[in-house]
Amino acid sequence: MEAQRLLRLVSLLCCVPAAKACLQCDHKIRILLEDFVLSAPTVADQIEMTKIRDHAYAEYRATSQKRKGVIDPTTLYRARTEYQSELDRFLKTEHTGSVTFEAIQILEKGRKILEKHLDTFIRDGLCPNKCGLLKRRVMDCFSCHYKIYICPSPSGQQDCGELPVQAVEGGQAVLNCGHPWHHLLLGAPEYHYSLARGVPGTEKVSPSNLKESDFEVLVVTDESSVVLNQLHVDEQGTYRCSLQSQDGTVFYRVIFPLAVALSPDQTHRPVIVLPSLPAGDRYSPSQPTAGLLVPVVAVVTALSLVASVGLTVVLGMMMSQRRAEEKEDGGTKHTKHCVM
């Protein structure tokens, strides 16, 4: 008898389809508890345990209702797995006490497990958006069906502030628009990147003064971040990322004021101006000034001209003397030739 009951329990754990609702609606849990009721030794005990089980279901619904009445698949899986473990251990144990008391204990254990996991989910997982609008798919703990749950922005709007970015010309800038809760959004929302050109911080591109017509669309993508490479100064401005659905519903929006500075090798070096010399050093031989160089150049030029003229005169006189000597030698030769 015990072996048959364990075999049935194993087959239920392996073959029952996955659950689609909270613990009291979970198909696996309901079948396991049905098996638990049928394990009672007498018909009277089974009837009593059925009443206790139904009361437990009402308690499970009340526990869920106090905690928004919804649950996500991950939280449900954790609660169901822990409760199945408790039921499995209970069914494998020999019991000598009151069947009714033991039934109350195991069903109350399920309520506490559900309560623990729902508290964690509501506190940390249901609406993780600190800014922006979240529409997500959850399980209704009363109808046992999926439904859409809306988590409004805590600030009441989808604009989530500014994230200033600094870059250098020729370098790159990363604009990251993603948040972990974005993957919970229904459908396939896309990131819309646009730009309003202008120097960040000026009145012209101040977010409060910008209109929709000031932005030019850059890219629409399912990636949460974009990389701007080989930046130029004229690419600086107010970048905007908007996460929105196909019908234009905006879930999240953030501004990236991007400033692009000149790279160090492109900036002009300042002109170095030497200080003026003290009055006592104006004519120092080791530091000639422009006023001293002018007369020196004039003297050198005059001396050069005098030397050139003198050299020309000397050369002229030497040439004249040579011609006279040659003429005289020629006359002497002619006289000797006549006498002979």
TrEMBL record:
The chain crosses the membrane at residues 292-317. GO terms for cellular component: acrosomal membrane; plasma membrane. Residues 1-21 form the signal peptide. It comes from the Eukaryota. Residues 165-261 form the Izumo protein immunoglobulin domain. GO terms for molecular function: protein binding involved in heterotypic cell-cell adhesion; signaling receptor binding. One of its GO terms (biological process) is sperm-egg recognition. Keywords: Membrane, Signal, Transmembrane, Transmembrane helix. The keyword Transmembrane applies. Belongs to the Izumo family. This is Izumo protein immunoglobulin domain-containing protein.
